[in-house]
Amino acid sequence: MARAIPIDKLPVYSKQNLPDPAFDYSQGAAFLISKPKKWSSFDVVKHLRKCVDLRKIGHAGTLDPMATGLLILCTGKGTKSISEIQSKPKEYIGEITFGASTPSHDAETEIEDRAEFDHITREQIEKALENRFSGQIIQIPPMYSALKHNGTPLYKLARKGKEVKRTPRQVIIYETKILEFRNPQLTLYVKCSKGTYIRTLAYDLGKAVDSLAHLTGLKRTSIGDFQNEDALSIEKLNAIFLDK
Do 115 and 48 fall within a single domain? Predict the structure, then answer.
């Protein structure tokens, strides 16, 4: 079995290192791409396949359609590096709204319940983050996720109104920081490990401050040392590969 190519040995394409349409991407490469809102992660994969005329492409960590920010795609032999990239810490900026919850824990589904939120203070949120959302924590993955139950993605079951027991998972929250709080809106910076659901963090934070909450916006700003500010836009990819 071929060994994975370390990410530091792959050509990494970004704003500072633009891709060459003549390169043989089957030999392995990584693309830093800034995912637009409403695009699924697989939409970006399909688009890059069209750009470089190669099917063997994978991404190193799903972003939900409502989320934006850094998505790293690997091509050809570089797909063996995906697990290495996935293991790196990730940074996000999330927009959380208190006082209401949804089945998906984000704005992709309709509000299903409401609760009081006038009592929530910045100090209360800071205390909850310090005591309950720092270091190793346990999360229960949301029903609206790509995790599978007996081979079926959970989100497909959720859309049919079904709910199944999910195995709690341990994740790591390295750092959180309140960037802005104007009740009921919270802007929160989170640095976390692989497998962390920011949607679940938002939902659990609402419970922790005796209310409800859901995620109304999310941007992934980094994966390891790779930054979204260096990532290529879809428009730039089009200009390089398709607009001829």
Answer: no
